[in-house]
Amino acid sequence: MDREGPGAPLERHVLKTRLFQPGPVPVPDRVRLAMAQALPHHRTAAFQPTFEACRLGLKRVFQTDQPVVMLASTGTGGMDAAVSNLLSPGDHALVIRGGKFGERWAEICARYDVRTTCIDVEWGSGADPQAVKAALDANPDIRAVYLQASETSTGASHPVREIADLVHRRDDCVIVVDGITAVGVYDLPMDKWGLDVVVSGSQKSFMLPPGLAFVALSERAQRFMKEARCPRFYFDLAGELGVIEGNQSAWTPAISLLMGLEESLKIILDEEGLEGTWARTEQIAHATREAMRAIGLDLVAPDSPSAALTAVFVPDGIEGPKLRAYLRDELGINVAEGQGKFKGKIFRIAHLGYYDRFDAITAVAAVEMALSALGFSGKTGEGVVKATELLRG
Amino acid sequence: MDREGPGAPLERHVLKTRLFQPGPVPVPDRVRLAMAQALPHHRTAAFQPTFEACRLGLKRVFQTDQPVVMLASTGTGGMDAAVSNLLSPGDHALVIRGGKFGERWAEICARYDVRTTCIDVEWGSGADPQAVKAALDANPDIRAVYLQASETSTGASHPVREIADLVHRRDDCVIVVDGITAVGVYDLPMDKWGLDVVVSGSQKSFMLPPGLAFVALSERAQRFMKEARCPRFYFDLAGELGVIEGNQSAWTPAISLLMGLEESLKIILDEEGLEGTWARTEQIAHATREAMRAIGLDLVAPDSPSAALTAVFVPDGIEGPKLRAYLRDELGINVAEGQGKFKGKIFRIAHLGYYDRFDAITAVAAVEMALSALGFSGKTGEGVVKATELLRG
Question: Per the CB < 8 Å rule, is A24 touching B72?
Answer without folding.
Answer: no
